[in-house]
Amino acid sequence: MAIDTSKNETPVLIIGAGPVGLFLALRLSQSGVPVTVIEANSGLDDSTKALTHMPTIYPDFKRAGILDDVLNAAGELRSTSAYFRRTSDKSVITKLPIPPGKPGPCLLPQGHFCKILLKHSQRAGAQVLFGHRFESVRAQEGSRVHVDVSSDDGVKKTFDARFLVAADGGKSAVRKAAGIEFEGETLPAQLVATDLYYPFEKFGWSATDANFFADPQDYGLITPIDGKGLWRCSFGLQLNKDSGEGSRKEGLSMNEIESAVPRKFEKMLPSEPGKKPEGWKLVQIAPYKAQQLCAKTMRKRSVVLVGDAAHLTNPYAGMGLNTGIFDASSLADALVSIVQRDASDSLLDKWSDARRNMFLKVVDPMSRAAYWAFQDPDTDSLPDRHPMFKAMKAGPNAKPPELGTDVSKFVEFK
C-alpha cells in the first residue's frame, strides 16, 4: 500500500458521512471551523433507513439553513399524523392528535436527507472524502489525535486533528478503538424493516399518515416513505424465550426472516374481506436488533461520540435519529467555543454527561415504554400508556420532551 506523506491537518475529523456526521460538519463549517469527513463507502448511502423528523428538531434545521429544503423534499409528508390500530382487524384505536396550528412529524428517507446535508456542508466548505476507511488511532500527543486512514485506491493517509468524532454507527470502529464500552441490553426480539409497494389507499388508508399496530405478537408499523407509493412495514419477530444474551445478539438468520415476511404481511396489510393481501412488491428487507444501549462516556480525551456510535434505541418512539441530530447540534456549539473562543476542553466532559443523561433519563425510558406498549394485549388502554399520547393529553400548550442541550451554560474559558 502506498503512503501519502502530505500533511493532513484539520481541527475536527469526523468518521462517517451519515446524517449525524454530515449535520455536524455543516454546523461547524458554517461557523468557520475547518472540518474533514471520512466515509468508507464510495458515495452516500441512498437507503431509506430512518424516516422521521420530529418538529422539535425544526429550530436546529432552521439554524443550519436546511429546514425549507427538508420540508420541500418531504412534499406531502412534510406534516403527518399517526393511526394506532389493532392488528387483528386493522380497526383504529385512536389517532394521534396534532395541536391546531402546529406541524406534525416530517417523513423523509434518510438517503434524501443526506443529499441535502452533503450539498449544504460542501457549499459551506466542509471536505468530504468518500472511499476512505478509518483504520486506527495510531497515537495521541498532547491535545492532538493521529488517525490512520486507507483509501480505495490503495493509499494510506494519516490525519492530524484536534478532535476525532465518531459518527460511524452502532458498530463504530472508532468507539471500539478508543476502548469505550456500551452499556444496556439487547431486547428479546428481532426487528425487521421492509420497504414495499402496495395499494393501501385502495382500502381507505391515508397516504400521508403512519399506522402503528398493537398486538402481543404482530406489533409493528406501516408508514409511507416517499409519497409516491413506497411504504415501510416494520415488525418484530420473537426470539426463543430460552435463548441467552448471546442468542439475542446473534438474532435470526436471513432465511428465517425472509420466510416470516409473507406471514407478517398477511397479518398487517389490509385486504378484501376473507382474502389474503395480494399484489405486494417487496423492495428490500433490513433486519436490525432491538437494543437499548449507551456508551459509558461520549468523550475520551480527543475522541467524541455522536448518534448511533454513542447510543442505540428501538424505533417505536421515533427518537433515534432526532437524538443524534441533537448530539451533533450541541457538539457543534461546544467545539466552536473551544476552537474559536478558547473555551476549556472540560466543556466536552460536561457535554458528554448532559447527553448521556438525556438518553438515559428521557430517550431510553420513553422508547422502552413505546416498544412495550404495542405488545400489551389490552389494546384499548394503549392511549393511556403510550408516551406520545401522554404528552398530547397534557394539553395544546404542553411542551414535548426536550432532547437538546444548551452548552452555553457549561462554558468556562482558560
Automatic annotation (TrEMBL):
<dbReference type="GO" id="GO:0016709">
    <property type="term" value="F:oxidoreductase activity, acting on paired donors, with incorporation or reduction of molecular oxygen, NAD(P)H as one donor, and incorporation of one atom of oxygen"/>
</dbReference>
<dbReference type="InterPro" id="IPR002938">
    <property type="entry name" value="FAD-bd"/>
</dbReference>
<keyword id="KW-0274">FAD</keyword>
<keyword id="KW-0560">Oxidoreductase</keyword>
<keyword id="KW-0285">Flavoprotein</keyword>
<dbReference type="InterPro" id="IPR050641">
    <property type="entry name" value="RIFMO-like"/>
</dbReference>
<protein>
    <submittedName>
        <fullName>FAD/NAD(P)-binding domain-containing protein</fullName>
    </submittedName>
</protein>
<dbReference type="GO" id="GO:0071949">
    <property type="term" value="F:FAD binding"/>
</dbReference>
<dbReference type="InterPro" id="IPR036188">
    <property type="entry name" value="FAD/NAD-bd_sf"/>
</dbReference>
<feature type="domain" description="FAD-binding">
    <location>
        <begin position="9"/>
        <end position="364"/>
    </location>
</feature>
<dbReference type="Pfam" id="PF01494">
    <property type="entry name" value="FAD_binding_3"/>
</dbReference>
